[in-house]
Amino acid sequence: MSVRLPGAPCTPRRCVDRTAPAAAAPAVLRLAAVGLVLVGGIVLLPFGRWIPAGAVSRWCRCLVRAAGVRVRVAGAAPPTGGLLLVANHISWLDVPLLAAVRPARMLAKSEIRRWPVAGALAARGGVLFIDRGRLRALPGTVAALTGVLRGGAAVAVFPEGSTWCGRARGTFRRAVFQAALDAGVPVQPVRIRYRDPLGGTATAAAFVGEDTLLASLWRVVSARGLTAEVDVRALIPPGRHRDRRALARAAEPEAAAAHACGGHQ
Q: Is residue 3 in a domain?
């Protein structure tokens, strides 16, 4: 197992473009819409096991759309069976976007437990938490992921281990890929991009550095013409790669939305 803790050099001051915001009134309305969609999800959460996967996917798209972000999805993931979904990581919006591809149990950093409302919602929704400061806990996390995958569920992971601005990216950490190997399930790379109205890379959705969730949320609902592009790449079947290093190397370029860190493009 790698002993390196993930990190990103991206910060709001350095990486986030200061584009012209939308008028305050539309931003407030979007914020209220996000709140209403979240409340609806919280109310229905106890009945989650009986809600069809298609309805969950539509709710996730509605959440992103409520924030004023258009959603474009290309491709599809297998609807059933154990599956490891891996994607690049830019924003908190990535979570509902992945769930719109296929509802899955998320692997998230333990700090999310402390987020207001969202933390409790994540815990009750079956999120698997990892304590990035306790490397000795990593084998247990991999074992838990393996058990979920063997049970026929999907697990969604951001192997970069940290959010990046969208113009730079990190490398995929290998440990989580061991769970797919041990469970004998396929890996589904997913590429996420955020575009501005002219089709260029938009960083307004980036949730990086010292950003707070509320500051990032306000920046998203205030932005003009954001579009989230979700590209479901070719499935990597089980047995094609012998170890987690090779499997991570195969998945990383498929999910990469930018050059590796070393200069923004």
A: no
Burial (0-12, 13-18, 19+ Cβ within 10 Å), 130 = buried
- Within-domain flag for 140: yes
56 phi and psi angles, rounded to 5 deg: -65, -45
* Domain of residue 89, residue span: 12-255
Collapse the DSSP code of 158 into the 3-class scheme (helix H, G, I; strand E, B; otherwise coil) and give the result: coil
Indicate the pTM of the whole model: 0.86
pLDDT digits (tens, 9 = 90+) for 176-218: 999 999 999 999 999 999 999 888 989 999 998 888 888 999 9
* Number of structural domains the chain divides into: 1
Q: What is the pLDDT of residue 2?
A: 42
Q: What is the maximum span of the chain, computed from C-alpha positions, in angstroms? A: 54
Is residue 141 predicted with pLDDT exceeding 70? yes
Percent of the chain with pLDDT over 90: 50
Give domain status of residue 192, yes or no. Answer: yes
Task: Tell me how far apart the alpha carbons of residues 90 and 97 are, in angstroms, rounded to a whole number.
Answer: 11
Give the residue from 165, 196, 176 showing the smallest Cα distance to 12.
165
Q: Is the residue at 2 inside a domain?
A: no
